[in-house]
Amino acid sequence: MPVIKRLPEITGDYVDAGALYLEKFIGAESYAKLYKAVETGEVDPDSEPSSRRSSWSSAASSSFSSSSSVVNKVWAVKILRKPKSYEEDPAIYEREFAMHSRVSSHPNVVSLHGHFVERGYFFLVMDFQAMGTLVHAIRSGVYQRNSALIKRTFGQLTDAVLFCHKQGVYHRNIKPSHVLVDYWGCNPCLTDFGLATTEDINEQLGFGTAAYMTPESFDLGAGPGSYSAARSDYWAMGVTLFNMITRQAVWYSARPVEDVRYGIFLRHRKRYLRDRFPISFPFARLCSRFFTLEPAERPSLLEFNEQVQKLDDLYIDEIDVHTAGPGCSQTGLVERSRTHRGSPALPCASRGVDGAASAGCSSVYLGQAQV
Ligand SMILES: Nc1ncnc2c1ncn2[C@@H]1O[C@H](COP(=O)(O)OP(=O)(O)O)[C@@H](O)[C@H]1O
Ligand SMILES: [Mg+2]
């Protein structure tokens, strides 16, 4: 059973000894619930004190006294179930906080301010991003045929991911629903470090979201294996860029046997991409090298981004459109995803649950591919 089903609905409650009012539920995926919270500026002295209160709040640091300057300040509060063994080894369960706070100073990582434990739940307090995720921005069409905007946003996100790696933090679950953007689709901020690790080389397979995982990181039941978490992040960034340009998922999962699309890609490379998606030939060439089966042959994220930034256009132009396949036309994107032909539509994660259908999503593929 997904953990969120076992998390309470606490909209309208006060938490952290009354310092935060949970005004609105904003999203949930598999492990947590996110709330928009308003800082009340005071703490109820009679309420059960929360343990491990950290210094996110200016009210908290002013000896719990009322402070009018902080009233109405808005935060995002993430609630996770506190595991039973928390008291025995809290460090394990503070991992998400530890990883996220290590990289939270970067302008393209969501700023994390503190955490506390209350009523048997673990809470993280971070900056609230009102405009939603990259999924919403992609579906709104803000990037459509705007190569300059896509390159800029992708470049900023690359900067954040490489910064995380420099700090020894590998995200392992990069995808559009873990990137928050502003109204114009700019200034991306990476979030959800729930699967992050400090180890580049990992032997525990199967971490991440299928559509964004490298072939070597799947657990195919074939015994022990290992993969690079850094390379997993590179790959997920490539898929995310593909989503931004095409509004579609390139495949459901990069397993040549399980997903026929990836199998066809491996056999036909550029042709597969050029015939099905409205991308420029140079970008198709770059992707054909980037999504290769052999990890050592793939360009690094730094190289990939440098190449992307050099491309004049990420979209197919008027001349090339006549030599490419039917899937590359600009107009057919949404229609094709509805009729099952061609490529999977970008999975909707507007309600957060990976792959779950929600209002407004037109694709029947939602239950399979994941953002
Ligand atoms: N700081 C934030 N501001 C606004 N919305 C957020 C913020 N962080 C997360 N969200 C929303 O909540 C959803 C779930 O958050 P996430 O951290 O991915 O939880 P989970 O650990 O359950 O996957 C995200 O997809 C996004 O829509
Ligand atoms: Mg998540």
Automatic annotation (TrEMBL):
Recorded GO MF terms: ATP binding; protein serine/threonine kinase activity
Enzyme class: transferase
InterPro entries the UniProt entry points to: Kinase-like_dom_sf, Prot_kinase_dom
Any GO BP: signal transduction
Chain ranges of the Protein kinase domain: 20-316
Alphabetical list of PROSITE patterns matching this protein: PROTEIN_KINASE_DOM (PS50011)
Protein name per UniProt: non-specific serine/threonine protein kinase
